[in-house]
Amino acid sequence: MLKISNVTRRFGDKVAVDGVTLEIAKGQMVGIIGRSGAGKSTLLRMINRLTDVSEGTIACQGQAVSELNGPALRNWQRDCAMIFQQFNLVPRLDVITNVMLGRLNQRNTLMSMLNLFPRQDILRAIEILERLGIEEHGPKRAEALSGGQQQRVGIARALMQDPRIILADEPIASLDPMNAQVVMDTLRRIHDEDGRLVICNLHTLDTARRYCDRVIGMRAGKIVFDGRAEELTTAVAREIYGADADFSEEATSTSIETLSRPRGAATRRPELVD
Ligand SMILES: Nc1ncnc2c1ncn2[C@@H]1O[C@H](COP(=O)(O)OP(=O)(O)OP(=O)(O)O)[C@@H](O)[C@H]1O
């Protein structure tokens, strides 16, 4: 579905992403891990075209997305929704309006600024909020919600675009373990139930192992691991994080694991908890 060929991104002398080549098929939930500065965000931002490539190409189903402009670029950005660590909601607007802003690319901007939304958008937003179990917060200001609830509003806003791909850039990095679990459960559900491709930058190994089918490890802009979650051993993690023999996985853990399952129990595809 997504073909990334020899992609490099430079910022001045700094090479943030260095000759990355990847193919990602539909039907996978992909986690990208690596230490801070490894190039994870830059890679996601190039897929969405928030950042341009310096070299190489990114294509989706044969369309060269790294070369799109104008309306075709806007269509791509609608097809490829981003979710951010800091939620990027409008804090003083109510939740339902924040969700409907996901349609901004497809609707008249003035109408959206005046908060005039078609009835079908309002109904769709309510339906999505119900699906994510946060419909009762619809009338509240976004700033009144917990971090986990705000991130689910961010996911609802992304779903309003009806995207083929969801790119989540450290979606749980600002959340406590319980909220992190709810948000990751939600992303996994969207992947499983809707068949949308989900690519998620994660700081933590346990989350990648638990939720992702495929894990890509980045180090200094390059891909140093690409395999199934089960193959992500401590030795591999040490290589990705560039750590020495006393590397401890605890240092990259969110503690999600300890919340809801005994040690050694089956991983991934958990039930949604709220
Ligand atoms: N706009 C920019 N201008 C200059 N340098 C940048 C810019 N964006 C990223 N970089 C640099 O590129 C490198 C990769 O950054 P990036 O944010 O992609 O890493 P990351 O793995 O997502 O890290 P983190 O987990 O901390 O977000 C870093 O050295 C960063 O300082």
Describe it for me?
With 274 residues, the chain is of the alpha/beta class. The chain has one domain (2-260): 3-Layer(aba) Sandwich (Rossmann fold). The protein contains ten helices and ten strands. It has helices at 40-48, 70-79, 95-100, 109-113, 119-131, 147-160, 177-194, 205-211, 234-241, 256-260; strands at 2-11, 14-24, 29-33, 55-60, 63-64, 80-84, 165-169, 197-202, 214-219, 222-228. The protein has a six-stranded mixed sheet with strand order 6-7-8-3-9-10, sandwiched between helices. A four-stranded antiparallel sheet has the order 2-1-4-5, covered by helices on one side. A hairpin with a 2-residue loop joins strand 9 (214-219) and strand 10 (222-228). Helix 5 (119-131) packs across helix 6 and helix 6 packs parallel to helix 7 (177-194). The longest helix has 18 residues, at 177-194. It is globular. Residues 258-274 have low confidence and may be disordered.
